Amino acid sequence: MTNNVSIEDVPLNRFHQLLCIRSGGGWVLDGYVLSIIGVAMVPLAATLGLSGFWQGMVAASALLGIFCGGFLGGLLTGRLGRKKLYFVGPAIFVVCSLAQYWATSGEALFFMRFLIGIGVGFEYPVAGALLVEFLPRKYRGPRLAMLTILWFAGAALAYVAGNAMLESGRPDAWRLVLASPAVIGVVLLAIRLGTPESPRWLLSKGRTAEAEAIIRDVYGATFSLRNLPEQAAEAKVSLLCLLHSGYGKRMLFVSVFWSCSVIPVFAVYAFAPTVLQALNLHGDWASYGSVAITLLFVVGCIVATRLINVIGRRSMLIHSFLWSGLALLALGACSDSSPMMVLLLFGAYALFIGGAQVLQLVYPNELFPTEIRSAAVGLGASLSRIGAAIGTWLVPISLQTLGIAQTMYAAAGVTLVGLLVALILAPETRSLSLQEAASLSR
């Protein structure tokens, strides 16, 4: 017995929910491992005697690693499959996080966090590709957006857990802070056991029997390859298509908007206590302010996830860049205001940038066909981290030479560039199937 229901239109089942947990756990860990350096930076810099240059290098090292890992992970995920690469990132997190405990120099921390960044870079293409290739179209946008929420949840957890460890008073507390992601990594490796390969990827490699078996296992005995009609219609395109025609334009859009949405955010997370102190927030204001702003990032992403299928991708991106950019401009103008005003403006930025944050995985996974989807996501992640790494490295230098007001103006400028790109290039993919969203003919 068979049916005619496309797997793009089935309701969510237990497998979908479990896959969301498996992929979502990776994003919790990504947010935690990338943000935990901000918690440990002040005590580790004092213990190891790091200059402003090396503080910036250590903070930016993971972003440089993402540049390498995103590109490499995207290519390998397309060639070797999603399943094999699903365990690489968590394994790197466990080993390198533990190794940070014994670091004795800025160079050693730079190397370990560079490798951690490679692991994060692997996560972007593999976790997103698995989700988008299994999820029904109705849930694709919200569930991909959910990954960004979980990233900020991981970041918030890093500040809460990290500050708690620092307050223990142990002389090696900052080392425990940097080693702590290993615990989450071990749990993530365990829950990912048993994840199947993507049927769409198997079909793109001509492995139809394996694809059919997985479809029946995931969706039920009445489903088969006939319930995946759009796969046969997808054009066989190579990675070179990213460099010309419509896919080159899409790659440009994804890379620039992704860069403009992450540069200020990563700069804030790497030096949150330092930035807040420059804005006249000291003591508990700075410590709890970091947690509060992170939670507002989570709230902003939750609101954006609720609205993504209501107002559409394009409109959300435009409004997100517009209002968050204005909030950063106001922060620059009011840099010497009261702590409460600073927190309100920072909170406004955190809320409004949520729309751009959740679209970082939605757009690139929808705009490219199966054969180059993971490579496109990996390349977008890589290119976006070049600017993020440079911006993060420049933050302590900018604070020392230009001051906090000019630093906030620069962040606002980056955000408003994202607005301009969104106005010119952002497409609308709401309610489209994967084939329709990735098609160059629409």
From TrEMBL:
Protein's UniProt keywords contain Membrane: yes
Name assigned to this protein: Putative MFS transporter
GO terms for cellular component: membrane
Residue ranges of every copy of the Major facilitator superfamily (MFS) profile domain listed in the record: 19-430
Family listed: Belongs to the major facilitator superfamily. Sugar transporter (TC 2.A.1.1) family.
SUPFAM superfamilies, per database record: MFS general substrate transporter (SSF103473)
UniProt topology in membrane: Multi-pass membrane protein
Keywords noted in UniProt: Membrane, Transmembrane, Transmembrane helix, Transport
CDD domains: MFS_SV2_like
Domain of life: Bacteria
Classification via Gene3D superfamilies: MFS general substrate transporter like domains
Coiled coil: none
Single Gene Ontology MF annotation: transmembrane transporter activity
Transmembrane intervals: 27-46, 52-73, 85-103, 109-132, 144-161, 173-195, 252-273, 285-304, 316-333, 339-363, 375-395, 407-426
Signal peptide bounds: none
Main location: membrane
Cell compartments where the protein resides: Membrane
